[in-house]
Amino acid sequence: MASTPVSPAHRRKILRVVFISLLLDLISFTFILPLFPRLLEFYRSREAADASPHSLLNRILLGLNAYKQSFSRNISDRYDVVLLGGALGSLFSMLQAIASPFIGSLSDRYGRRTALLWSMAGNIASVALWLAATDFRTFLASRVVGGLSEGNVQLATAMAADISNAEQRAATMAMVGACFSIAFTFGPALGAALATVQTVAANPFATAAGVSLLLILIETLYLYLYLPETLPSYRMSQPADVSVSTSTTRAKATSRTNSYLLLNTTHFIFILFFSGMEFSLPFMTYDLFAYTSSQTGKLLGFMGLLASILQGGVTRRLNPLLAIQIGVTACAASLFLLGRLTTEAGLWVAAGLLAITTSTVVTGLNTLSSFEAAETERGGKLGNHRSWGQAGRALGPLLFCSLYWWAGREAAYGIGAAGMLGVSGLVFGALKAPPVTSESQ
Per residue in 365-376, pLDDT tens? Predict the structure, then answer.
């Protein structure tokens, strides 16, 4: 639905605050990603020396090993910590799937600014727990708190929709997507570099955690000082009128182009296959080309850099449906190639195709979803949309890696390509561009 008009100067101010704050948030969030293997090795070694075999971490590792040994193929012990990292990632995503609709609905009721500041309080607590985590229980608690409180991405998406009309919507959503690409290009490298600086003997990752906490605190203060409320004031100050307006606009929204069920299902299935492939990529590069962590990091950095360039230069100018169609086609081609490649050149071509996917599909789906939501329900609807994607991200790595171990690379990526062709069927056969974007193009 159309957004309440805002002046160009006010819109630019809000976009600047949203962009800077989201970039700080995502860079802080990505610090930990390359550290997971070393983090978990540290806690495993510490508990092996100081704790009983019945400690929480040891019990989790025993369960994961039992799962791993249920496969017919021999799986190297090298993957134990990687599998544990994947399990923690799945836990975080599942908690996000649970929390996102509630955070979005609260932002509809109390305002985006209020919801975001409360979310930042949870983020501060999460990173502070990581800073203090000298044992696995505390580290696990930090991931749980973070999973339940992280709302920056969906609220940034809602705010971007609040201040954008139909013609501006795709470009604004692409800006949010560009924050992801930039952060994932530089954040992991910064986190890895900070992890080499040891300041606290009991927690060798305290420097990275401390800088991450500093960025979150700066972001929170910046938001408190400079972020205005983007939710129109009449919806908070006149609840009686809101209920009438909501029922009217919701009736209009449901008659729009795409149903929420179709958009959410497409999001879920796409993320299910894409995240599974994404998580298995380090396994594949190690098995096929004996890539080190540094070499895999360079590959992922290339993908992030290319995606950020595409977000800023191409995706923002595309009709959102066309962007999605290009992205899922590129993803299906990449999965097909990954299942059959034999050279490093082929790997980098596949990575380039995945960068196209990263820069288009989720941004396009968020844009289409924002068109279907009335102003009074936008936070909740976008929260539900994110929830479906996070559910796919929780299940994808587990299912895809299980298939990889059980049936092999060719079968896993072949099935992934077939699944992405199914997503393409939904995208080309069922999704439609909202009339305003069709006309503007």
Answer: 999 998 888 888
